[in-house]
Amino acid sequence: MNSTKALLLSAGLGTRLKPITNNIPKCLVEVNQIPMLEHWLNKVEEIGIKEVLINIHYLADQVIEYLKKRRKTNLLIKIVYEKNLLGTAGTLIENREFFFESDILFVHVDNFTNSNLKGLFKSYRLKPQEIFLTMLTFKTHQPEKCGVLTKNDLGVVTNFYEKVKNPPSSIANGAIYLFNYKLIDWIINNIPDASDFSNDVLPNLMNKINVWDVDEFFIDIGTPESLECANNFLDNK
Fold first, then answer.
1. Suppose 21 and one of 14, 64, 76, 94 were both cysteines; which one would form an S-S bond, judging by CB atoms 3.0 to 4.6 Å apart?
2. pLDDT given at position 2
3. How does residue 146 score in pLDDT terms, banded at 50, 70 and 90?
């Protein structure tokens, strides 16, 4: 069985979260008084993952300082500074050697869930051989603001739509994926100019993605409103 390493994408500019992110990187914005990055570091440790790669760019010094002061655990954290943003697929390709011979939990840290993700890993383990990737999905009330998909009766993605008018579905891509490192080679060979994972890679994987519908609260914390929603949910638990 392959070990799993995590890619925690943390380099974004947090434009939609302004003015909150004027002086703090998006990954350090707090949910329930805990930075979003820390929520994910805790989660991957609970899953049993031993190594993570974190890419940084905007206000990178703050992220480095936070990780230096973080409590000591057995989790191996590799920090990669991107002087110029590589894009989510570009980061994956650039760090191929780190993930060699591993499965990869691919996470945008501005997503929050209180799920332990055991269902995601089970769905990945049980997927048919022809499936390359398992995607976390959730039901959205604003499908026009999300990447949404259609799927067949087996839970295999048949079409993907990234933020389109009149979307045909309310099943949204949670931007959390589980796949084998061999997918990186497939991307290099088939989509050599890939930069963004959602826009450049996913549309080329139709009928090669199965989905897992998240079993707990899930939200994309991309705006002040969604951040408030997450905090209100946790306050009321």
1. 14
2. 64
3. confident
